[in-house]
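Thread: "does anyone have the structure for this chain?"

Original post by V.I.:
We have the sequence but no experimental structure in hand. Need at least a predicted one for the grant figures.
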Amino acid sequence: MKIKEIKGANMDIDLVSESIGWKQNNCPWNEEENTKEHRCAVKDTSICKFFCGIRYLDNVLCSYPYENIDVLSEDEIDRKMK
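Reply from O.Q.:
Generated one for you, tokens below.
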């Protein structure tokens, strides 16, 4: 499977801090590069090229190391962009 479900929504949208009180998986891109610089989404700034959506409750769908355009259908990409 090319899309992973990452618990804890590694998103920088007003909430993320180093000391959170819930389970949060590490970003696979950060793990590969041994850094903490990558975020799935940054409010009013960007969305990661591996970001494929959010699944209830706060899980990120991540396609790392495959860019989202390589794993999502054209309909899914169009829906995401609207």
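V.I.: this helps a lot. The first strand starts at residue 4 and ends at 6.
O.Q.: and The two ends are 26 Å apart (CA to CA).
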